[in-house]
Amino acid sequence: MASAIETISNLSSVKVLADHQRLQLMQDLGKACQEWGFFMVVNHGIPEALIEATTAVVDEFFDLPEAEKMEYQTKHVIRPHQIWNQL
């Protein structure tokens, strides 16, 4: 395993990639998931303020006591709109 996470690609131009470039990008993302378990998307155009606000709300939710989080649990594992599911 590599000692540092490498930059895969600048995703700001993904819409104009040729088919072979998109295939390579998908392979690179798959490899990142297999080797690291995650990847980070950059140059996506989402304002930093929105990201910070969303992160704050997510942190607030996961800091709730387990019993309170369970109030939001859905009974169905596969559902188009769910807030929380303890798998």
TrEMBL record:
Q: Which Gene3D superfamilies match?
A: B-lactam Antibiotic, Isopenicillin N Synthase, Chain (2.60.120.330)
Instruction: Give GO terms: molecular function aspect only.
Output: 2-oxoglutarate-dependent dioxygenase activity; metal ion binding
Keyword annotations from UniProtKB, A to Z: Iron, Metal-binding
Q: Locate the Non-haem dioxygenase N-terminal domain: which residues?
A: 14-76
Q: Where is the signal peptide?
A: none
Q: Name one Pfam family in it.
A: DIOX_N
- Protein name as annotated: OLC1v1004740C1
